[in-house]
Each structure stands twice: as structure tokens, then as C-alpha cells.
Structures
1.
Amino acid sequence: MRSEELGETLLPKRLALPIFASDPLSSVAYATQEILLVLTVGGAAFLYLTPWVAAGVVALMAVVVMSYRQVVHAYPSGGGSYEVVSRNLGANSGLVVAASLLVDYVMTVAVSVASGVDNIISALPSLAGHRVWLALGFVLLLMAVNLRGVRESGKAFAAPTYLFIGGILLMVVTGLVRVALGDAPVASSASYGILPEDGKDTVAGLGLLMLGLRAFASGCTALTGVEAISNGVPAFRAPKARNAARTMAVMGTTAVVMFAGITALALIAKVHITEGGACRLTGFPGDCASTPQQTVIAQLAAAIFGGDHSVLFYAIQAVTALVLILAANTAFNGFPLLASILAEHRYLPRQMHTRGDRLAFSNGIIALAVVAGGLLWLYDANVTSLIHLYILGVFTSFTLSQIGMVRHWNRALATETDPAVRRSALRSRVINAFGAVVTALVLVIVLLTKFTQGAWLAVVAALVLWLMMRGIRRHYDGVAAELAVDDPEAESARPARVHGIVLVSKLHKPTLRALGYAEAFRPDSLEALTVAVEPEATGELERQWTEAGVRVPLKVLDSPYREITKPVLAYVREHRRDSPREAVAVFIPEYVVGRWWEHLLHNQSALWLKSRLLFTAGVMVISVPWQLTSSGRAGGPSRRAPGAVRRGEPAPGSGYERLPAPEKV
């Protein structure tokens, strides 16, 4: 796609919702389950806390959505929390948010895919042994779809997301109707007892409070990905801010309804699920060590729709697994966008800001897939293990961005005189201030309850990333300062003389072409240079040189240790010391080949020598190519590779080679 086609990739609200909100929408599939897993450490005695914990999560979701709607309107250029914090609290605080979000985007992919695989295994237990390979395959699939472009990935993911929303709402409505008619659904695990963990059956006082807080922290996974819409405002169609704010409101409302409905039905159906596996369920049939527990969604679907062999059961499992896997798409859009902004600000390598052939940030997409795949491999795609590394970064960015928004409104109010605008700003400041207090409390809770269970790894990763980004910025700033022009006349002055050196190994066509090119440059002096690695071959070269009557003198360097690079470097550097005002141009004949394996057979010595010469001041390295037959097969590549048109390599017969060149304006 051409650069000017970027406007055609902008998203309407119906596609933006599944692209940017699939993570918070799909997290309702496991948020209730994570609450129950924590509360069942003391058996079934503490399940009465579930409604209160869920109510806290719902209230928090409402606060965060309202707060981020203010961010969308105030900063419609994208960047979300990173831009808000950088502008209002400083660059270092902005980097804290950026590092936290990048880590959390990686965790979003890992947790979403692992949870999706769990739901597949709930329907097809025979696949349990292939958990890791399934997860890695889905990550590769997501990467491939996203490399096709934002709009294409939105079209691919829209149907599953809307099917999931419809399926969950159908399940919730059907379940509640059955309750109203006196036929409440009963989960398959309702008859199982729950063995408390050692010493956890008599929790009281402060211990009970910590247990409730830990369950609340786990349930807050329902809020992951909420900030993605604020990061992706530039991807919306105009009016961008209004469309993004409306999409966020729809996302928040839908997520709250689904989460509350699933939690209510889980309590009504008496779903029992434990963190320690099926062996903590008394009365569990079969081998508890090898048989996986069904997820909360699977148990509810079976209870409401007539068993785990009904059509609607499989339909719910299919769309849940699919949307959980596709929920990682939120990260595949948020991570590259944020990485591109950081690269533009010189905190990440510049390649992260480069758009690929389909106008997507390809390098960021690939980097996210590689890191998330590594985590899935390391943690065996286990949701319970991965979840402890999750959501810490989200609430770090939530808290700092809301504090930044309070400062933003303070600055706006200091200069604003219009009464209507001031009232709006005051209302927004109250919303953001309340959001800052609430999310700060949740951040403390998450740190206290999850730090020792693995969240410290996320903290360390964010710290390392923060230090790395600062180091990259220092490097880019140093390079910019070093390359800045101080004295244009002195720095553009021509060298007093140019001495040309043509490197020679044999007297053949590439050597003669290099000699001809070197003479065409008209250096003040020119010589050919060879290294005597084998005396017999060097003697034969000198004989051929004399017989051919080559005008350029041949100089032979002795190499008793059979090295090529060191003698050449020593000779060039010595010449530079003797004539510091004289530039040296080194001409290197090189083969151009067409097959990948031929690269391994040619030019290795030249490549190494060239890389060393580049570090020598006052030396210019000039490659003189000689195209072998394989490099010109059929006039170019036999098929269109990705980016062929952009690189000027259209496939023969494709019609692209006949297109007129675009007129420059």
C-alpha cells in the first residue's frame, strides 16, 4: 500500500470496537474465575465475598472508563497515558508509564492466548498435552493477520468478537430467565466439596481482608486493555475524539453487563473451581491429577444449555476460545502504536516507527509476538502462573495518567475565563482526581497481594525497559550532537588528495571492472593491493599482471600468519598516518548472487574487511559489484515477495512494471 493510502485504513466505530476493546470484553471470560480461584483457598467458606469483590471491580471499571474518556477528548493525537504523563509530569514519569504498558501488552497476549487454549481444552480434553504448541501457533497466526494491516485485522476479528458478546448475553439472559421461572441452573461442580489449603480454613480479621483484597486484585484483570482506545485515537475516523469516546463508553457498558451476569450466574449455579487443581475437589470423578477442570464459562454453558454435549455449549466454548485468542489483538494494535511513538521520541530504535508494506508497524508486531511466545513457552501456557505478572503495569499507567490529567485541568483552569468551559473542566478534574485516588489504592493492593507471587518479575522487566529506553535516548542525543554542523565551510572542505586502492585476489573480470571504476574516479594516485597468503598463487598473480600490461602498479603485502584483514588495515592506517590530509578510497570487487545459499560461498572476506575499514577515519569503502548469472534470473525475483513493489521489484508479467511513475508535485 502506498503511503498516501493511510487514510483508507482509518476505522469506523463498528471495527474499532473489536480491534481496541476485544481485550477488556474478553477478559470477563476469566475475571470471575480468577476471583473464585482466590476465594476457594479456604474452601467454600469465603465464596460469600464474591458479590462484594465483583461490585468493587464494576465500580472501578466505571471510574476508569469515565476517566479515560477525558483523556481521549484532551489528547486526541494518541499516546494515551504516555502522552498525558509525559506532558504533565515529565519525561521520566512518562517512561515509567510506557515501560509498564509495554510489559502489560506482552502479558495481554500471553494471558489471553493461554486462557483461550484453556477453553479449547475444556471442550476437547484430549488436547491438554498440546497446550504450549497450540498457544504458540495462535500467536503466529495473530502476528500474520496483523501484518496484513489494521483494517484487515479488524474485519477478521469483528465477527468473533460480536459473536462472543451475543453468546455471553444469550447465556446470561437464558440463565436469569430460568432463575426467574424457578429452574435455576446447577453447575456440574456444585456437588463437589472444596478442600481448603493448609491453614486457610480459619482465616479471619486481617487475613480475611487480605484474602478479599487479593481476590479483588485478580478480578481487576477485567480492566486490562481499557487504555488501548486512548492510545489508538488516530486510527479512528473523524471526528476522532468523539468516535473514540463513544466506543469506550460502549465497551465499558458491555463489559460491565457481561461480567456482572457471569458472576451472578456462577454464584447461583454454585460453580466450584480451585487454584490447586481438581484434586482439591472432593467427589471429583476420574483421575484428578491428569483431568483438567472446566472453566467457569464452560460450566455455566453446560448448566444453562443442557449439558456439555449440547450444540450451544460447543458454540459458547468456540466463540469464547476464539475471542480470548483474538483479544491479544488489542495488544497487537496498542504495543506497535506506543512503540512507534516512543521511537519517534527516540526512546526505542527508529525501526519501530517504520510502517511495513501494509502500513502497519511491522517491527513492533513481530517483536511483541516473539516476546509473548517466549513467555508462553517458559510458563507452559499456564494462565494461573502468568496472571500474577499481569495488570500491575495497567494500574501504574492508570494512576499516573489520572494524576497527569488533574494537572492538565489545573493548567487549563488557570487561564480559562469562559464560565461554560470552566464548569466542564472542573467536572473533568473531579472525575480524574477520583480516578487517581481509586486506581492508586488498587495499585497498592495489587502490589501487596501479587508481588511475592510473581509480580516482581513484571516490576523488574519494566525497570530494565525504563533503563534501556533512557540509554537509547542518550545514544540518539549523543549522535545528533556529534553530527550537528558547527562550521559548514571547514566540515565540507575537500581533502588535499585522494589515494585509491583496489583490493585484488585474482586477475579476473571483477578485478578489471574495479580497476576501471577506480580510474574513472580520477584519484590523485592509484595502486592495486594484494596479500601474499600463498606464495605460489601470489607469484602467478604477479606474472599475469605483468603479461596483461595492467597500468596500475600492484603492491604485495606479506602475511606470514595467512591473514588478509590485518595486513590491509595496517597498510591503510600507516598511509593515513604518513599523509593525514589525504583521503583513502578502497575499491572492493564483490560478487552479486541470486540464491540465498550462494551468499554463504562468496564475499565473506570482503564483508569482514569492509566492516573493519569503516572504523578507520578518512577511509572510504567502495563496493564494485559483479553480477553473476544467478543474480539475473528471469530479470528479477520469480514471484512477488512482500514489499516487492515498494522496493522496485515487481514480478515479471504482473503488470506493475508497466505502471507509469507517479507524478511528483
2.
Amino acid sequence: MPFWPSPISTRDVAASGVRPGWPTAQDGRIWWTEDRPDEGGRTTIVRRDADGTRHDLLRAPWSARTRVHEYGGRPYAVTPGGEVVFANLKDQRLYILGDYGEPKPITDEGSRYADPLVRDGRVWCVRERHAEEGKVTRAIVSISLDGGELREWATGCDFYASPALSPDGRHLAYVCWNHPRMPWDGTELRVARLSGGGAWTVKGGPAESVLAPAWKDDTSLYLVSDCSGWWNLYEVGLRGDGLRAIHAAEEEFALPPWRLGGHPYTVLDDGRLAVLHGRGDLRLGVLDPVSGTLTDLDVPYDGWDAALAAEGTSVVGVGYASTVPRSVVSVDVASGEAHALKSDLARLPDRSYLPVPRAVESPAPAFLYPPHGPATEGTPPYVIFVHGGPTSHADTALDLEKAFLTSRGIGVLDVNYGGSTGYGRAYRERLKGQWGLVDVADTIAAAEWLAAEGLADPGRIAVRGGSAGGWTVMAACCRSGVFAGGVSYFGVSALAPLAAHTHDFESRYVEWLVGPEDPEVYASREPLALVAGVSCPMLLLQGLDDPVVPPAQSEAFADALSERGVPCTYLAFEGESHGFRRTETRMTALAAELAFYQQLFT
């Protein structure tokens, strides 16, 4: 089939990778991070002053990005005087930066730092160390801003997150957990006394995910817990006494903490909480912690990243909608006025070319994006999008990769297969021990549903996904002939090598997803062992510097397909990691994907 003409180019899509994030608000000024695809994918820090002027604070080649857990997280904090402390990507040291000055190091090389906050002349953060023999250790530490004394405050657990100091500076709250759990499985909220030592568990355990502590006052904290089966907000005393649900609902008030430093709620000056809540996409609302009354704000953003900041009665976050690009947004809670400060897009395409999703059950929850453009005869082709994680979810944010396809006559179905977040713990745990089965079955069922509903041409349905989504793509193509082709970005093809060679954060994740290492069970799940079932062409794309899913995963599957005579294109990119950041890489990958669909659907 000839594709429809579209004004959305590969460069337009590649240029949309600004990814504004991690906002901070202080003294009338707002800071956030921005990626620069045209500058090798580096990340800078931007400050917006009260008069609206913007300043890029980091010149090339500096890049504010931490590699803690490899996925990183919040890489900077602002001092009371307006200086910025940040983790530099190249050496992972912490630096302090004044107005337009040269960054000055405050830590030595050899460690990584994330989730920082500055208080009383010190930066408090998570430190990660990698020993030569491969052992990884983490701690909550504080470091003098002048590069002096470093003190350890919490050690002995495998993972730490969310350091938070009490208003009087006497106590430190933090989240911790140990292998083999992931932070959405089971964590503990602990409090340490800074003078005299001693620490105790306030909330949490092996089967409860506690996240995002924030101090209400010197003797009580707010937190998010899924003890009810949903991530809801609670208030608890310093010693774990007086636990109270602030607003009980079968909704999520947080997202899974793949990256450190997320703030799914924030405390306003009047004591109310600006919160995110919902199923799937999270809406922005204001919660009265006394009455439990929750009022949504009438703003043109359907979802938000879990990274809120507040000053006075204003809240700053990163919001999005299906036709509104992901943007740093300032919202005045009193008036309800919202102002976009920075968009992910340099240029917004004609809105008539942007698809508007429709929530459907396929049978898993999914978002349907029909082809959006000139009328055409016949039933259109479709591409099923499979999100990564797999403990993550598909949202309704404006995505030019989807618009790139729908504006050319190709529909998209974005599936929240069993195991996705946003629908409670029970739905999340549908994938426990079932990876390669539940996700694959839901993806195949989605394709069959598209055909049965008459929405897609049964012979022209493809599937694409990245990381864990790439695993599902490969496995689905192994198990079903419903797909005309599959596209995997840095996907997992074999379990034992993944468990042996992936990074520490996910090194025990396979145990939860599939089970303890068992050659027979692994062979019944992994695409590499099931490759004989693939009959459709495949496109595999991989970054050669990927520490999460090593290149050998894609290479082995490509070789196995070639040995069996199955058409396969394998594209590898130097200097790219887990998620492509450079303009030229993203353009090349998308052009290859479009050419692949052209061959499949003609």
C-alpha cells in the first residue's frame, strides 16, 4: 500500500526528544532538565527566572545525568542560595555550579550519586559504589558543599531512595529494600535519629511497597503505600503510630520508581497536598489531608510525570495530553491557571494530523489510535505497541512516533498487558512468574481483537516494543502467526545471560518474572529457544553501550533467525545505551522502521 503523505518527518520525531523533567521551584524561579538530541543526547539544566527569562546553566560537554541503578533519576538539587549541585554523566562526580560559572567538583571519582537534596550546607543523596570484583553497594550519605566531609547515615541494605530531612533537622527518613525484591514489590520506610544514632522501620515490609516519604511536621510523615492493593496516601507518626489513610480509593497515587527522585505529591504552603491520582494516566488534584477531600484541577493535561514541586500555592510538574506535548507546567492552585514553560517539541505539527486515543479493552486495557488523515479504501494496517518495563504502562501522552505512523495510514494499538502499572497491585502481579506468557497472550489477543472488530486488516498487523517490550515482541512472533512482522528495540531474547550479565538493580528481577533459574522453564519462555516458531520478518535495533540489555541479546536472536532463513535486519548503534538519545540515531531507526512496514504492508 502507498502510505499517505504526512508533514511529520523523522527529524520532527527525533527533535521531540527534549524530555523536560525534574522541575524545582524556589524563590520565584524554576529549574528543570532538558535533553539535547542534537548535542549527542546530553542533558542540560535550565533555569527560568521570575521575569520569564531562561538560562541554560550547563554548557557542552557537561551533562547532568546520573547512572545510579543505570536508569538514573533526579540528577540535581538547588541550594538555598540558588546554586545547582548536579551529577555529571562522564565521571558521575557531584559538582556545584554558580551562575554561569565553571562547575567545581565536590566528590571524588569512583562513586555515583542520585536523588540529592541540599540542607544546612550539605547535599544529602543516594551513593552507589561499584567494586572491581563486581559488588555494588549503596548508602544514604551527606557531603559538605565545599567538598569536605562525607558521612554515611544509612548502610547495609541493597537499595536506598528518597532521603528526606525533618523540618527540625533531627531525623532522616528514607526508603530501603533488598534483593530479590524490586521497589514495587516490598520496601521499608525507615527513620534515623541524626544525633545519637539509631534507626527504625515506620511502615512497609516484604509484601508492601512504600514510596515517597515527606515530612508533615517534626513528628509525622506522609507516604504512599499499596497495603490496600493500591498506592494510596497515608499519614503516620514518627514511630509508626497513628497510621491513617488520607483518601482511600481504588486508584494509584504514584508510579513505579524505575528512576530515583520522583515526587508524586508535594506539600503546599497552606498544608494541602498537590497529588497525582488515577488509573493509567494520573490526574493533578488538590487533597485536603484533614478532611480527605480531593478536588481535581481543571487544566488541559490528562496525565503527569511523578515529579511535582511546589512553592506557595503554585505547583510545577511535567504534564501531557494526546494533542498537547509533554511540558514543564506551572499551575496556580488558587486560580487554576496553568502556564506551559517548556515543551518537548520544537515544533507542534498541525493538530489535524495528531491522533486522539480511545480507551478500549482488547481484552487487556489499551489505547486505540486509528489512522488519522485522508480517507482511504479498505481496512488499514495496524502496529501494536508493547511498552517496556514490564512494570510500567502505556499512557496517552502526545507521541510523534505514533503520529508518524497514523498520519501515514497505519493505526496503532498501545496495550497495557497484564503486569502493567496504573491498575493496582493485583493487576501488576498478574505477571509474577508469568513473563513470556501473560504479556504475550494479551498482545496476541490484542491483534486478534483488532481483526475480529474489523479495525485492522488481519494480514497486516505488526508488533513493536523496546526492552521488556522487545522480549514480548519476539516471544509473540515465536508463538503466533497473527503478526506480519515484528520490531524489537534492545529486546531480551535469553534469560540466563540476562540474569548473569545485566546490572545490579534488575539482577534478580527474572526470579520474580519467571522464577529461579531452571533450564526447562527458561527454554519454554525465552524467544531464543522458541525461535523456530518465527515465520515473519523482523527488525532488531540495539545500542552497543547498553548496560541493561547487552547487545548479545539482539545479536543472538538475529543470528538464529538468519540461520533459519527468516528475513531479519539487525541495526546496531555505537554510543547509544538503553534508549536512543542522539538525533541521527533516532532518525535512522525510525526511517528503517517505516521502510520495514512499507515492505510488510504492500
3.
Amino acid sequence: MSALPPAAARIWLAQGLTRDKADTLLLLAAALMVLAPHAAHLPLWVSLLSGATLLWRAAITWLGKRMPPVWLLVPLAVAAMAGVYATYRTLLGRDAGVAMLVLLLAFKLLEMHARRDLFVVTFLGFFVLLTSFLYSQSMPTALWVACALVILLTAQLSFQYTGVVPPLRQRLRASLKLCALAAPLAALLFIGFPRIQGPLWGLPGDAQGGKTGLSDSMAPGSLSTLAQSDDPAFRVRFLGAAPPRHQLYWRSIVLGDYDGRTWTRVPRKRGLQRLEIAIHGRGQPVRYETTMEASNTRWIALLELAGPDVRLPGHRVRDTDELELYAADPIEHRLRFSASAYPDYTLQAGELPQRMTRWLELPAGYNPRTLALAQQLRAAQPEASAQQLSNAVLARFRSQGYGYTLEPPLLGRDAVDEFLFDSKAGFCEHYAGAYVVLMRAMGVAARVVTGYQGGELNPVDGYLTVRQSDAHAWAEIWTSAAGWQRVDPTAAVAPERVQRNLARALPRPAAFGLAPLLELQNNPDSWLAQLRYHYTALNNSWNQWVLDYNPERQRSFLEELGAAFGNWRSALGMGLVLALLFALRWQRRRQPADPLDALYAAFCRQQARRGYERRPAEGPLSYAARLRAMPASQEKHAAMDQFLHLYGLLKYGAGGTESRPASLATLKTLLPLCR
């Protein structure tokens, strides 16, 4: 290679960094970005050891010290692998395997002695970056991985240059260009490559390891704990007008057995025969599509009263006499399905009273004060109907100073007694459970229903998001004339819970003086709420079209795409696109075929924009002499002289000490420095 004015090298030296140091520090920055996402799920000692190793390597690079000897690295690596085995009790599997890869990447940075080691570290970084999707496939994770990929590519490109190294900005631009060139092919493969059922990467935490939702039992405090989570339970898109909020009761589990503290489902082991359930829906059904998050349970929450046509992809759906729907296996990944519901209905009207005795059972020896209160209410209205007795209980809740709280006091053996007569503060499970006990004690068949109530409508995309904080418990009472009727005792104490949402009924205290921001978030017209709506809509689109791009959606999308291409307007549009592509190809063919001439033409265009256009009969040496009058830095003048000198040698056959490909690469490197 002919002597080059090391413009970039001078910059590094002015900053106290040689090229090797700068490239190594860039590689360490890329490795830090690769390892950062794994700190959320790896053991703390693995993250601390990896971070300390990167700091150690950075100190060695900055101070110019020698690498640690092998006799020190080998015991350290063996001890780390032993720590992985002690933590996971295996060296196989996802968690143990990723932990070993993370440690291997960190230790390999201390053992780089040859050019081959640089490529080993780089490609190992690509692989460890890919393992991030084993834990999360969320939109922020994908964005972080994309940024880390660009930095890692930039570090890899930096080691490829043999002459003058372009500025970091140009190397970043080259990496972005590589990613942009690969993106269309990746998108085409994503859309058209045959899909497999379930998430592509196995068991990501946000696609399959969802937070457990409702359980098949209810005790004081169970729903109030769940209601403090803002994680989405499911999202709904109505195919027509959405029902009013007071009808948005998402039925899930019916509880009928009570042991004095905990409500559970009525077990099938009692030998109960499946009943012929009389159901009558009136009016037009409400049709909607649900995207259900992973819950690791079998229960499905559906709008009351759900139609019988629910189908879950990949799951067998079963039902019970209480109109519960559940999957045969736990739901471990996000599901999308269609459903319908009849808000106006009658359920088991005209049923034989003897078939309802199981909904009158109460445990003996519990809650004596509650039973005495029920006798008083019944004695006060001996001829009262079930609805009148229900109104009497609700009137007591409204008038006797009861409070609605997420932090109710602990209750003892006679939980309903202590709630009704002592604490008078509780969450929805307290009111629903106490109401059912009172109604049963007065001879009215009653049961507890758990599910969700309400939801937040996003005006940006029209989806209703139902969160775990919308978990709710209500009651049903039965009469022969009207069948099962929904009664929500919580609405008697906190009507805002049903009419608005939990945040309006129980505003949470804002820490660190963030009360104004919390108020802005709860105001749907504020800029903060609008920002949250747009982000939620974007995240929902990511879930719908990327994470949930399953075989059914792929088939439907490709069919719609094929039908669209059959339209003459689409064909015309495709023709215009093809014509544009041919025009671009023709334009490129007009460019000089010789890469040397193409580089020279690009150089001349650069200088012409500065007012120094090359004259028709001006050769490279004469042009170089005239360009020396241009006001520019010493590094730029040196780069322009070197470019024109090397071009003249190649163009007019004098040649040089380099091969032609190497000389062309040098010209490509010099070209940005001549701007």
C-alpha cells in the first residue's frame, strides 16, 4: 500500500486513542448492549460477573495493559460454569444455556489475541443477541435488539478496514444501510414463509409466561391483590356498537361452595347430573373478537351471556352447568378468537326449586351474627320477594357506613361477621361473599361469580383493554319466575367502580410528587393519556400482526393479498411500481460501468458542489493543483491529493504497490474524507 496520510489516525491520536483501542472499545460497547437485556432474568451474580469482566477488559484497553494469562482465565471460567450448575442444577435448557453463553461472551473478550478471535466474539454476540427473544418478544425488546445489531455490525465493519478508517458516523451509516438492504427480504420471509403454531422462539416470557389471572377459589383479599396489577388480561374489538359500560361483565368462574372463609366451585364429585339449562337470549347478539393474554389457567372470560359458538385455536373448549367455559389445557400463549353475547337474557327460569338446593348451603357454626341479621331482615318482611330482600341488603350496604378499599383489614374465623359488623371495609369479594351468605340465610338461592368488569376503550384503535385491575366479583340470585339475575353489591357502595373504573373509585396515592402526572393520566383528554393511547395501540398492533401472526392469520392475509392483486387498480399500481424499478435500473446502467470511473465521478460531484467543478480537459494532477486553493482542513487536502494521485496511477496504467481491488477499496475509504 502506498503511504497514506493517516487523517483518521490523527484524530484518534489527538483524542489519546489508537485505532485498536477505539475499535476494541466499540466492540465492548456492542457487547454491553447485547448482554444488557439478559440482566432482567439472569441471576444477579451472573450479571455482576459479566459487567465486571467488561470493565476489566475496558481498563486493559484504555491503559494499554497485557491480557490476563490463561492460568487465571481457565479456573475463573470453570468456577463460573460450576456456579451455573449450582444455580440451575443442570447445564442444559434455556436458562442455564443462556447464562453460560453470556459468561462465555464476557470471558472471550479477555482472550482476544488474533484476528480470528474478533470474529468469534462478534458472531457469539449475534447469537447471544438472538437469545433475547427467548424471554421477551415485546416491541421495546425488538427495538433494543435492532439498535444492538447496528452497533455490533459497526464494530465488525471497523475491524475490516486495512487503510484509513472512516469516521464512526460513516460506519454507522454503512451498518444501517446493510440492515435496510436485508429488511425487505426478512419481511418477505416473515410474511410468506410457512408458519408454525405458537410463538416462533419457544417460550418467551411475554408471549407464554403470562401472569396468572383468576383462580377457581376466592378468599378475602384474593381479588384485591390481583386488582393492583395493570397487566392486560385480554383485548376486545367489537364488530358493532359497544354495549354500555354497566353491561360489560366478563363472566369467568362461578363459586358455590363456602367453608366459612373460602369460596370454591361446586365439585362434580357430588354426582350431580348435567342439567338441561334453559337459556333465552333476546335481541341481536353483540359480536366481538378477543385477544386473550397467556394466563396459565384454563378459564375463559366472556361477556355475559356468551353464545355457544366459541372456538379456541389449538384448544378443546368445555362448559359447565353454570355456563363457565374453559379450555381442556392451560392457556400458555396468546389466543385470538371470536365470540358473541346476549346482554338481555333469562337463565334457568322455571327451573324446579329442588334443583337449586345446592345454592342454599352454608357451613354450620360460622358467622352467627350474620345469620341473626338475615333472620331479622326476613322477619321484617315475611312476604317479601327475593328481589325485595336483595334490595334490603343493598340498602344496608349503602346506609351503614361501609367503605370500598384495596387494603381491607385482616379477618378472622368468622370473616363475614367481622366484615359486616366490625371493619365495614372491603373489596368486591367481601361484598359479594357477604351478600350471598345473607341471601342464602334468608332462603334465596345465590352464588358468587368472578370475572372482570368494564375495561378501557382506546379511541386510537377502537380496542377495549381489560386489565387484571378490572378483576371483579358479583353475585347471582335465583327465582323461579326470572331465573338467575345478576346483582353487583359493590355498585351499592362504590358506583364509580362500575360506571367508570377502579382508578376513579379508588385513586392510588402518587409517590414523589407525581400526583399531577397521575391526574393527567386518568384524564382521557390530556396529552399524557393520548400518548398512552397511541403507545397502547402501537403495542397492540405489534401483538396482532407480529407476535400473533399464526398460520390462520397468514392464510387469511395471503388470500386477501391475492384477491387485492386481482383488482385492476392494484394491477395498475403494480405496473407503475415495476416501471419505476426498471427506470431506476436503467438510470444505474447509465452510470460508469468501471468502478474506478464511478469513484472518480463521485469525487468530481463532491467538489462541484463546493464550487470547484472539474474542467473538460483537466487531468487528475491539474485538478489536484487547483483544489489546493480550496479553503479546507489539512486532513481533507491530504485525502484529496492521495485520492487523485492514486486514481491517476490506476487510470493511466502506472499501477502501484497494491492490487487493483485493494486500491479501489482505498479510494472508497478516502472518498468520504474528501467531502
